[in-house]
């Protein structure tokens, strides 16, 4: 038996229970991993609340972890006991001391990256890679707008976009977060509580607008984000006719669809880790909690008491 966080009913942080679970042995194509660090992401809150539906009840939340391989399934090659591996996405269940994973879903962690750093960056970093390199390929000379620039993904987007040669505009809520965003590569910061970001973007770009907006906020910023583009909670439905005057492309990408094949996963994670090793990406690990205190971590995340990446330690 090992310990894991279990959710028996949907609700607030208090539904996260620290319990004994049976893990079992890996079957063909599987490995058993002893987790060393578990990344906390807002998607975990969505599953806990029922915004996203878990396939079973009760369930163990968590979409990101780094750990050591402690057993391999029969006939498996390419993975061995002692390997340090990371995974992000499905299957859910990383809030556990140990877990069974498909060997095809894990990637090797470079020896120069420690487990806490790897766990804090793998999901957010691959999200940034997909947004910057595949959804809209950022190139030198582009101007990008990053909403919530001081958030976990926002911080990485700013750093990476600057390294790609883009001019980066970031929106934040406080002076403190504005300072962080500037450290992370923002050429211009906008405190959206103090000034209208649409007017400010228009001023910064001399009326030209930006090439792409990365908007992780939603309803409160969506219409403004559209207004900031060149070519010209959950957002309300948008009629296609609203996009036509500017010939806009709108996408709500899902990371797992961009890392569906083994080659795609390795390429995506590999680019993230290489940028961490080279210093292009600096990971802000501002908070760590014992995994047994996941409820407190969730409460702090929802109450905006955290910044940067949050990591749970089994």
Keywords:
23% strand, quinone reductase (NADPH) activity, Quinone Oxidoreductase, Chain A, domain 1, Rossmann fold, 4-stranded parallel beta sheet, 2 domains
What is the SS-derived class?
alpha/beta
Second rung of CATH, namely the architecture of the largest domain: Alpha-Beta Complex
**Whole-angstrom Rg:** 20 Å
Instruction: Supply the number of structural domains.
Output: 2
Would you report the number of β strands?
13
According to CATH, what is the class of the largest domain?
Alpha Beta
Distance between the termini: 14 Å
CATH topology of the largest domain: Quinone Oxidoreductase, Chain A, domain 1
Biggest sheet statistics: 7 strands, mixed
- Average pLDDT score: 89
Instruction: Describe the global form.
Output: globular
Number of helices: 10
Fourth CATH level, the homologous superfamily of the largest domain: Medium-chain alcohol dehydrogenases, catalytic domain
Helix residue percentage: 25-40%
Strand content: 15-25%
What's the helix-strand series? EEEHEEEEHEHEHEHEHHHHEHE
List unreliable stretches of 5+ residues: none
């Amino acid at each position: 038996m090992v310990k894991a966080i279990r959710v028996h009913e949907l609700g607030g942080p208090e539904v996260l229970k620290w319990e004994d679970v049976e893990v079992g042995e890996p079957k063909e194509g599987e490995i058993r991993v002893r987790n060393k660090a578990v990344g906390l992401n807002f998607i975990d809150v969505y599953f806990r609340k029922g915004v996203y539906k878990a396939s079973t009840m009760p369930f163990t939340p968590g979409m990101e972890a780094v750990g050591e391989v402690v057993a391999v399934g029969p006939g498996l090659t390419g993975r061995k006991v002692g390997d340090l591996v990371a995974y992000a996405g499905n299957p859910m269940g990383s809030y556990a001391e140990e877990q069974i994973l498909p060997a095809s879903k894990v990637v090797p962690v470079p020896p120069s990256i420690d487990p806490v750093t790897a766990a804090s960056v793998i999901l957010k970093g691959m999200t940034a890679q997909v947004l910057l390199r595949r959804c809209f390929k950022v190139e030198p000379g582009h101007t990008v707008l990053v909403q919530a620039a001081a958030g976990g993904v926002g911080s990485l987007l700013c750093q990476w976009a600057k390294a790609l040669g883009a001019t980066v505009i970031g929106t934040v809520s406080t002076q403190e977060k504005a300072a962080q965003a500037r450290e992370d590569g923002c050429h211009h910061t906008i405190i959206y509580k103090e000034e209208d970001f649409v007017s400010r973007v228009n001023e910064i770009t001399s009326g030209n607008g930006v090439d792409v907006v990365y908007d992780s906020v939603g309803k409160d910023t969506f219409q403004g984000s559209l207004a900031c583009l060149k070519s010209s909670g959950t957002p309300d439905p948008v009629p296609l006719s609203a996009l036509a005057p500017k010939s806009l492309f709108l996408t709500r990408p899902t990371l797992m669809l961009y890392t569906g094949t083994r080659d795609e996963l390795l390429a995506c994670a590999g680019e993230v880790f290489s940028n961490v090793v080279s210093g292009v990406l600096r990971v802000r690990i501002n908070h760590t909690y014992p995994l047994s205190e996941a409820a407190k971590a969730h409460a702090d995340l929802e109450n905006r008491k955290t910044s940067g990446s949050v990591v749970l330690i089994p």
